[in-house]
Amino acid sequence: MLVSYKWLKELVPDLTATASDLEYKMSTTGIEVEGVTSPAEGLSKLVVGEVLSSEDIPETHLHITKVNIGEEEPIQIVCGANNVRVGMKTITALVGARIVDNIKIKKGKIRGVESMGMLCALDEIGIDEKINPMKHEDGIFEMPSDAEVGTSIFPYLDLDDEIIELSITPNRADALSMRGTAYEVGSIYGLPVQFPTKDLIESDKATADKIKVVVSTDKVPTYKIRVIEGVKIAPSPLWLQTRLMNAGVRPINNVVDVTNYILMYYGQPLHSFDFDKFGSNEILVRQAEDGEKLTTLDGVERELSKEDIAITSNGKPVALAGVMGGLDSEITDGTTTVALESALFNGTLIRKTSQKFALRSEASARFEKGINEGTVTEALDFAAAMIAELAGGSVLKGVVESNDYQPQQVVVSITLSRINAALGTDLSLNTVEKIFKQLGFGVKIDGENFICEIPSRRWDISIEADLVEEVARIYGYDNLPTTLPAGNEAGELTAMQKLRRQVRTNVEASGLSEVIGYSLVTPEKALEFIADKNFPTTSLMMPMTEDRSTLRVNMIPGLLDIINYNQNRKNADVAIYEVGNVFLPSNTEDGRPTEVPNLAFAISGNVVDKSYQGNAVPVDFFHAKGIVEQLLAGIKNVTFVATDQIPAMHPGRTAVIQAGERHIGFVGQIHPATAKKYDISETYAAGIDLQALLELQPEQTIFTDIPKVQAVTRDVAMLLDSNVTNAEIVEVIEQSRVKTLSKVELFDIYQGVNLPFGKKSMAYTLTFQTLENTMTDDEINTAMNKVTKNLVEKLNAEIR
Description:
- By secondary structure, the protein is an alpha+beta fold.
- It folds into six domains: about 1-40 and about 160-190, Phenylalanyl-tRNA Synthetase, Chain B, domain 1, CATH 3.30.56; about 45-140, CATH 2.40.50.140; about 200-400, Phenylalanyl-tRNA Synthetase, Chain B, domain 3 (3-Layer(bba) Sandwich); about 410-475, Phenylalanyl-tRNA Synthetase, Chain B, domain 1 (2-Layer Sandwich); about 495-695, 2-Layer Sandwich (BirA Bifunctional Protein, domain 2), CATH 3.30.930.10; about 710-800, Ferrodoxin-fold anticodon-binding domain (Alpha-Beta Plaits), CATH 3.30.70.380.
- It has a seven-stranded mixed β-sheet with strand order 28-31-32-38-37-36-35, with helices on both faces. Strands 3, 4, 5, 6, 7 and 10 form a six-stranded antiparallel β-sheet that branches.
- Helix 6 packs antiparallel against helix 7.
- InterPro entries: aa-tRNA-synth_II/BPL/LPL (IPR045864), B3/B4_tRNA-bd (IPR005146), DNA-bd_dom_put_sf (IPR009061), Fdx_antiC-bd (IPR005121), Fdx_antiC-bd_sf (IPR036690), NA-bd_OB-fold (IPR012340), Phe-tRNA-ligase_IIc_bsu (IPR045060), Phe-tRNA-ligase_IIc_bsu_bact (IPR004532).
């Protein structure tokens, strides 16, 4: 919301605070101010000049003009505008002037003719194209005929104004108007507001004889129409144009500009129709029909549905309610009869419609957040009187409306003790009463109980807590006492927060660096590491970009993008991890996904770089698996099961991580084809469900005494079928019921020459240890016999 300081001063006449003062004061009382700017900033030496003569330069589009700038002698300026003429007053930039983009005007020669300045169009003094009523090719800007020659142009064009940019949150939509902002400033400083009024003069002809209104949907609480006959469409007066431009709105003509002025002044969206284009004297407001077409004012044909509210006449839509009017009924230079609409529309439907068509407007933004239901008719009458004043014509008698809608009176009560308890203050009855009166509330006092009648302009106030907030911000947040929260218990981390810290410490100790990836990816990347291509994902209705449209269901694609970014910049060795949430489908009624905390890491390049001491050691599956094993230390029954069901992972170098029957993640090599697509070198990655990891954590860690005697080791080598895995062998060894066995470690594996086809040799070191006594040879041999017997019986192993 752009607020003109000059306009605000008119509405709060006693205001002495500067725009900079307002910037601080409003920001500390609940409405954030983005900043204060001046349209004149960077401009200088721009005056009103009058063209005394104009001669064409042969064979060019240029003119030699003599311009009166209020000095003894006129100056000569070469001008290329096609609309320059004798007698017009225009913007004149003198030698040394600064115009848009900090361009300095210098004395010079054009086609050999001396030029002592420049005649300017609005865009050349910084008026943005979006709000500029003139195109550059239209020529220079003509100042009013009563503008005093030689004086600064700034007051005439309101360039000496200061623009306060407010960042309005949804709960304070009442400030999306000049009247709302004036009430807010008046409340802050305890000043009265003063709003101009207009006398509405009606003709003897009744509006009801001209037009009829029917509303067939309950999504339109009220719909009102006035008719103005005999209007003459023309440009608005300069004061209205500059006021709109300073509010960020482009002037169009005297009728449309009035509706935009009322939008900024009252916060009430209005719409003006060319009545003669209706083809009927009845307006029907209804839910649109599926497939119904409407070409809006931007020239785009829209296909409507039942969720949209349509303003129709003669059976056809003429406007998309609350969002944008139709092209077929717009105000043009030939319009003579104006139908002026003021209404209340269901904010939820307006938001859905504007989102569906990507059609955001000032009107839709206000209907979505709420408008003052008490000034719907007042704004309509003010606009009708203003149109009659600026465009001529006569206002027909009366308002045709769907019903005589009146906003419900909101009354909220609160006690003084409740206010003081909530704020930690000791405010008096009189102090709080004064604050409520500053806010414009009707106040009755019953003992220490305040009974507040809330005006319709503050529809955000409905409960006790709202009154407490109003008292706090007007009294001043910086005036509230500072106290520590009461309580005997100190806060602590949740179990998940503790696990996240533990996981970060663990993987960083393994040499990985933390990164933060995007939660939104493309639909293809979202399913890249999921076996089921029909896996449901969650996508945004209106994403900022196609690359960020779908919530991720795993974090590996984001890590691969980061590896690509690094390797493209000659950083070949990358070891990164991310702790974050993935978004899985849920069965909730609102369809929101379930956020599940996950760990993912990816490693590419070398674990050890090449040096004079030895060769480089590239990352491999076992390095990645080792990081996972260390992370899962303490979790029982962890197994790694080979899988080829993850499309983006190498089918021969990938394993699913299981704890018993529960799937908790995967680890392996990125498929070469996937690595090529991401333009990265050989990469290994893993993903682990932290929620499952938390639930599998042992309830307590039991201390085991450190043995007092030395351990004993024995090696065992065996010949087995080549399809027998290390995990199966270790499981058989550990199930041999040898209590003294403390460790099993594979140290050799061979498959090839001198071994039968389909066989392989594997060798293990077994460590035995007791707590108190040194083991004898007989005890060791007995333990080894149990192990070898179990291997022979269960795996058909041949002990070597």
